[in-house]
Amino acid sequence: MKKSLLVLLISAACGNAWGQTLSVEERLAQLEKKLEENARELSQTKAELNKYKQTATPVFITGVTNNQEENKSEINHENTNGSTAENTPQTLKALSDFVKEDMGFSFTGYLRSGWGTGNHGSPKEYAIGSLGRFGNEFSSWFDLQFKQRVYAQDGKSAHAVVTLDGNVGEQYGTAWFDKDSENLLQFSDIYLTTTGFLPFAPDASLWVGKHNLAKYEIQMLDWKSHLTDSGAGVGIENWQVGAGKLSMALVRQDLNAHAVNYPATKDAMQVNTNTVDIRYKDIPVASNTTAELLGRYSLANKSDSYQNSENNGSHYSVKDAWLAGAVLRHRFDAGGFEELTVQAADNSLASNFALISNASPGYGNGDNYYGEHTYGKALRVISQGEFYPTSSVVLAHALAWSAGNDIYSYDTGAHTDFRSYRAVVRPAWIWNSGNQTGVELAWFKQTNQQQGNEYAEKGYKATLFHALKVDTSLLQSRPELRFYTTYIRAQDNGISQFRFADRKKDQLTIGAQAEVWW
Fold first, then answer.
1. CA–CA distance from 91 to each of 60, 65, 102, 106 (Å)?
2. Is the torsion defined by CA of 475, 480, 485, 488 positive or negative?
3. Alpha-carbon distance 501 to 121, whole Å?
4. Do you find a cis peptide bond into 479, omega within 30 degrees of 0?
């Protein structure tokens, strides 16, 4: 290194002298002069670098972000111990936020995974949508969302969004993705979303692509009270109209419409369907209380060939279906929330109200449409939330009542009347913000009456658990590590015909589970 530096210095000193005749003494004099100049420049550079180190962080962070004055006050604030704020978590967060904003990229996601074993071999899930998911799910799920800003100028912005999600089985060491196995993978979202492009709604989001309006989950029961599955669509969200915010979407979901002898034969034809989904939310009602009105209408765009198949009676008639509802949301001052939902639906949307394990309102049964739907209707009332009876106790719950008349049941057939009751409560003792011990108790009962025949399904569950957490909320704080033991009993199984391993009606399991979103 020193030899290389010496060669460079000699070259710089001699410069044009190589073409001249100089004595050794003259060449050494020029070299000495250049060394003195370089020493002075190095000293000046060191001084400037030390000065820059003292001021560079505030200038770097506050010089580009949108909230310049707010960030500057954070960074220049002195701690009580005399150290500057450039070493505080607030400043690190400001730096992190700056990097994300500068890059316009974010990576968010969710995952759930765990281990479990049962007293009759491999544990089996039963009636998750009625008894709850805690201690009753044995698969791994993930959602990964990638969002990149592709444009930002003059109050307009555009982001490309891709969401990848799937299920990974917990049974085998290999987990190759395959639609016919327990390992599933899909792109649930691929769309472009923009703001500022609509002059009449500059703050609203306008999107186009494979996407849908927000899904409302009944978290403890693992199904959605309101959703619209989408193959692709166009929508506007959070448009301030009057006291609330309006969201609308037009989405496509084609279905495999089956022949009337399904499932004896798998003869199906693709039918194009479209859904209009409308929400009006954040309507102020009282202090900490808002309301939302929601509705959807699904209809088929049938080809002539399918219309002919309907007319000659070889395939089921794909009928329009509607759903309407209202949601009342309240947040408690002491922490926690309550959400009360009332919904009504007809035809195939009503049919899904009667499902035991997944009561999400779909236009078909998954991607399949079948059954003789006769404009039967169903109604349901759902309550979910959590609150703190004392500072040391937190209680979460999910309660659902539903009933329908003259619907098509995917379990018991056409012209079914049903009644369903589901109740899950989870009280927990708060040792501290990182430790809770509790129990989840669940019970459900459903009866289906179909052309003079009655079918009954009933069961209960008890889960004892200890959780390692990062906050006290049961439903809204993650990550969480859970250690549990669960007892489930299927008292009646006249609707699902379900049995645990060894044809048993009950199951005892122990397990551990992790859940996190970021």
1. 12, 13, 16, 19
2. positive
3. 7
4. yes
Tokens read off for 301: 């765009």
- CA dist list (Å): 264 to 188, 259, 309, 391: 31, 9, 18, 58
Q: Report yes or no: 337 and 331 within 8 Å, Cβ to Cβ.
A: yes
Q: What is the pLDDT of residues 372-403, one digit of tens each?
A: 999 999 999 999 999 999 999 999 999 999 99
Is the pTM for the entire model greater than 0.70?
Answer: yes
Q: Is residue 221 within 8 Å of residue 398, measured between CB atoms?
A: yes
One-letter identity of residue 242: G
Q: Tell me: the pLDDT tens digits for 196-248?
A: 999 999 999 999 999 999 999 999 999 999 999 999 999 999 999 999 999 99
From residue 285, give the alpha-carbon distance in Å to each of 116, 321, 331: 45, 30, 12
CA quadruple 199, 248, 222, 364: dihedral sign: negative
pLDDT digits (tens, 9 = 90+) for 18-68: 445 566 667 667 767 777 777 777 777 777 666 655 554 443 333 333 333
Output the CA torsion sign for 57, 59, 64, 66. Answer: positive
Cα–Cα distance for residue pair 465/508, rounded to 1 Å = 14
